[in-house]
Task: structure prediction
Amino acid sequence: MEASTIEIIGYFASVMVAISLMMKDIIWLRCLNFTGCSLFVVYGIYISAWPVAGMNAFVACINIYHLIKIYRAKSQQVAMA
Result:
């Protein structure tokens, strides 16, 4: 049985989310999780699974929000030093 491209995207998205949850560094966790969620959005849209696409788009936005907060806090710490 040969996997289609969209199935491979789905499997890769699952692997990315699983790996992200093993990260100790919160920045790596957020980046890898964002990548996995973004791939799940593509997968969900392609197979017309709107709850999958919608929920993962929401989680991807949360990851971006937190990454921006982290980088802003780091740049403020550098500016104060």
User: Anything to note?
Assistant: The chain has a mean pLDDT of 94. Residues 5-80 form one domain. The chain has one domain: 5-80. The first helix runs from residue 5 to 20.
